[in-house]
Amino acid sequence: MRKYFLYSIPFILILAIIGVIYSQYFYASYYYSNVIPVDDKHSLVLIEQSWQQRDSQNFLAYNDIDKGIIWKFKVDSLSLMSSSQWMYEKNIRRDVMVKNGQISILLQQEKQELYKFDINTGQLLGQVSLDSPTNEDEIYYWMCLHDGQNIYCRTINAEGEPSLAAIDFDSFQILWYVPLKGGSAPYQNDKWIISHEKSYPHNYLRVISKVEGTSLLIPHSGRGFLKDDYYYYPDFLQNNEIWLSRIDLNNSHKESLIDISDLSIPDTDISMSAVIANYKDNLIYYALHDGVQIIISYNLKDNHWNWFSDLPTGYRIFNNDKSDYWLSSPELTGWPIIQTPFYIIGVENINDQSSYKYIAVNMDSKGSIHWESTYPINRISRTNNFKSPNYYLYIPIAGDSRYDNLSIMAVNGFSGDINSWIRLGRYYKGRPQYLEDVMLTHYYAHRKDNPKVIVLDKDAFYNIDRGKIDGRHKNLFFVEDIKY
Questions:
Q1: How far apart are CA 33 and CA 46, in angstroms?
Q2: What percentage of the chain has pLDDT greater than the value 70?
Q3: Higher pLDDT residue, 449 or 188?
Q4: Count of C-beta atoms within a 10 Å radius of residue 430
Q5: In angstroms, how far is the first alpha carbon of the chain from the final one?
Q6: Is residue 290 part of a domain?
Q7: Which helix (H) or strand (E) element contains residue 20?
């Protein structure tokens, strides 16, 4: 027996050496970040593949929640543009575009690299390299946006000037460059991109024509919203009057429309950027009438008042600047553009400033209140957001941990009805724990028709439409309905 044992020692040593070599040089660990849903089963994922004794490698991967990685593409760096965590125009993620079975993404490598892939095979179909703007160009808020046909990237032109480059998605060729300085968030519609610039001591509105590839500067400092060929904004006059004015972007002509001096509401922290919204051809804003806050609708097309609506007794408007509705509105234009008849507003108890409720205002029914929340709310989350056609409200529910557990309420913007109210959790060592930081805002939709999914990990999505968790890691998580 001892003889056989001695004979087996060399084989054991060989197996041990093979195991060490495998673990050090061949066995790879995967670390992923930034899961970007493409549809209800697939996502783009940034992955680091590391070994004990070999240099790590970075990949952009296309992942299936049931099958795992479908294809991957080696990159030097995993840095997304800073804008990927910020604003969304028309429910579009700025640095990712999907069209006709193709997908593009902007990544920061040695330069800015804009890639286009066949979404099914991972074949590289196009690549555009752009010089990266310097920090002095105030690029923090945005680097890239698109409109479903063209991609617009901030860069440096041949003369070394901060510029915006337009790239046609189909041909993946650069169409034009225009000068662009300053770091304010851009506003866009089908014809225009506008951004605020500062050239001390003056402020300007940079107006870029998408069709012509030309731009002009208009002296201007007020924030407002972009609608059709006009930029609407509050004009503060020297006699303490405030007028709603607009600029015709075709000819820079300025026009005063109506006196909105009653926007000045005392004893609140409402700021001008939180006061005004736009629905269809209507201006929606808050005002003070006989000491009571009201909501007013004014028709911009026909220039007449539509309706006045009272708030619930004992409540006042809670500053919408503390909510991300305006960051995730269908068209990011400074003030929210509301594309559904129902608008969800947070209101604050006048006598108890730690007590809040939500109201659903029906814009098509003279501002009537469709419902008021009856459950207690001790704070309104900044992560509240709109993703067509639903509002997502993050409502804290007291838990056992030092943090509140965030529940998610989905409200249909067309019917005003509550579709669902749930909490999500994960099993940790066999014990259920509620997730404390579940947000649609940062990782969600990059196209308008994107299915309603919440990323739990790269292989587990919660499908809001179906009310279920899908993917091969679905058993690691759970969903709990909240009764209301």
A1: 5
A2: 72
A3: 188
A4: 5
A5: 73
A6: yes
A7: helix 2-21
Q: Which of 318, 333, 89 is nearest to 223 (CA)?
A: 333
Tens of pLDDT along 146-202?
888 899 988 888 888 888 999 999 999 999 999 887 666 677 888 998 888 777 777
The reply to whether 149 and 260 lie within a common domain is no
Partners of 49 in the β-ladder:
30, 57
* Domain C-terminal end among 40, 66, 92: 66
| CATH number, domain containing residue 166 | 2.40.128.630
* Full DSSP string of 315-351: EEE--GGGSSGGGSSSS-BSB-EE-SSEEEEEEEESS
Higher pLDDT, 339 or 473: 473
Domain hosting 202: range is 76-221
Backbone angles phi, psi at 214, to 5 degrees: -120, 165
Nearest residue to 36 via CA among 19, 58, 60, 11:
60
Virtual torsion, Cα 58, 61, 64, 67, nearest 10 deg? -60
Q: How many separate helices (H) and strands (E) can be counted in the chain? A: 2, 39
Q: Are residues 271 and 148 in the same domain?
A: no
Q: Are 107 and 187 found together in one domain?
A: yes
Q: What is the pLDDT of residues 253-300, one digit of tens each?
A: 999 888 877 655 444 444 444 456 788 888 887 777 777 788 888 888
Q: Interior CA angle at 237 toward 236 and 242, to 5°?
A: 50
Whole-number Å distance between alpha carbons of 73 and 68? 15
CA dist list (Å): 164 to 86, 106, 177, 195, 208: 18, 14, 5, 11, 9
* Secondary structure letter of residue 22 according to DSSP: I
- β-pairing, 337-338 vs 276-279, is parallel
Do residue 46 and residue 117 come from a single domain?
Answer: no
Model-level pTM greater than 0.90? Answer: no
Is the distance from CB of 190 to CB of 210 less than 8 angstroms? yes
Q: How many domains in the chain? A: 4
Q: For residue 71, tell me if it sits in a domain.
A: no
Which of these, 474, 387, 477, lies nearest to 426 by C-alpha position? 477
SS3 162: strand
Domain identity same for 241 and 344: yes
